[in-house]
Write a structure and sequence with these properties.
Elements (H helix, E strand, L loop, with lengths): L12 H4 L17 H16 L15 H24 L10 H7 L7 H20 L9 E3 L5 E3 H20 L1
Helix pairs in contact: 2-5, 2-6, 3-5, 3-6
């Protein structure tokens, strides 16, 4: 449902070249930057959620800024869970997550923007703190998605960063 990203079914493109929409080049992100980039991104969402029209969709197929913010909050939460799995299990297989189904079930469009802003910042900080505490060897630990995509914590972190950066671009352009 959210903005169309080239080759969205092939996750590797975001690790191989700059995003043609938001411009983020994940290849240029050092692992030491991950936590701070998450914090900076999370800190920008409350301002977005205070704007007028935050519940309005630009068209029927595109999420509103509120829905994008709910998604980013849930991405932060989900990736924190997945990161914890990668740190405590060997090569875990992450449970499936259907982001569109979650948006419907959780009624993203009906959530309180102020509450979402707070929850997003808290979730972003929790995830950033976990990344900030990483040690050198931990960045090599593997994990897998059910669609066959495999990550190390290093590639997982850069793949993750694209999502909130891209969605902030979606709602601020």
């Amino acid at each position: 449902m959210y903005g169309i990203i080239p080759d969205a079914k092939d996750w590797t493109w975001v690790l191989e070249r700059p995003c043609p929409e938001c411009g983020l080049d994940t290849r240029s992100i050092a692992r030491e930057e991950v936590a701070e980039r998450l914090r900076v991104n999370a800190a920008q969402w409350p301002q977005v959620l205070r704007r007028p029209g935050v519940t309005q969709r630009p068209d029927p197929a595109t999420w509103s800024p509120l829905e994008y913010a709910c998604h980013v909050r849930d991405v932060f939460r989900l990736y924190d869970q997945r990161l914890l799995l990668m740190l405590t299990e060997h090569n875990p297989l992450y449970p499936n997550w259907d982001q569109d189904e979650t948006a419907i079930q959780q009624r993203y469009s009906e959530q309180d923007p102020a509450a979402v802003a707070t929850e997003l910042v808290v979730a972003g900080e929790q995830l950033a703190t976990r990344f900030a505490g990483m040690h050198d060897e931990q960045w090599k630990r593997p994990g897998r998605r059910s669609d066959g995509a495999s990550f190390t914590i290093d590639t997982f972190s850069r793949y993750l960063l694209h999502d909130p950066v891209h969605h902030l671009h979606d709602v601020t352009r």
